[in-house]
Design a protein that fits this description.
37% of the residues lie in helices and 18% in strands. With 171 residues, the chain is an alpha/beta fold.
């Protein structure tokens, strides 16, 4: 039986979700079952469109409003908790080889998800399940138990020049 690890993509730089999606596509290409759960992002994006088209190997669950959540409302809290409970069952059942929790670090940082509950899920996951966590503001607990932590560092970004997210590149 293969060993599943816990990977984290964090930091202020661009590319955390992109790295996770690349891993999802690679895993699906190898015949693995992937569950992609996205917190805090409800707006339509090109990566979600293509992931849904690869639905024979990739399942997608999203939680969030049409814009990225910074200050959560009651609906955000309820939605995130419901989404987390669903993905928690998915992980513990072990039916998927790879489970991606996109932006969960941010969801924990703004108290939508309890980090202790995620730590418990990670410790109880079936051995073969690979878990990928993305988002800024990684908690100390998650950093400690993760097998791989990659920090995306923002050195230079065209956003600082006022350039907005572009379809097919950032969204």
């Amino acid at each position: 039986m293969k060993q599943g690890f816990v990977q984290v993509y964090t930091g202020n730089g661009k590319g955390k979700t992109t790295a996770a999606i690349g891993l999802a596509i690679r895993a699906a290409g190898a015949g693995l079952k992937v569950y992609f759960c996205q917190f805090l992002k409800g707006r339509q994006s090109s990566e979600i469109k293509i992931l849904k088209k690869i639905n024979s190997h990739i399942s997608v669950l999203r939680s969030g409003r049409k814009k990225f959540v910074i200050v959560p409302k009651k609906c955000d809290i309820e939605c995130a908790k419901k989404c987390f409970q669903r993905v928690k069952r998915i992980i513990l059942k072990g039916e998927y080889d790879v489970v991606i929790l996109d932006e969960i670090n941010n969801a924990m940082a703004i108290n939508l998800i309890n980090s202790n509950e995620l730590v418990t899920v990670i410790k109880e996951k079936p051995k073969h399940v690979e878990i990928i966590l993305t988002g800024r503001n990684i908690s100390k607990e998650i950093k400690k138990i993760a097998d791989l932590v990659t920090e995306m560092k923002d050195i230079k970004h065209y956003y600082s020049k006022g350039i907005r997210a572009r379809k097919g590149i950032e969204m």
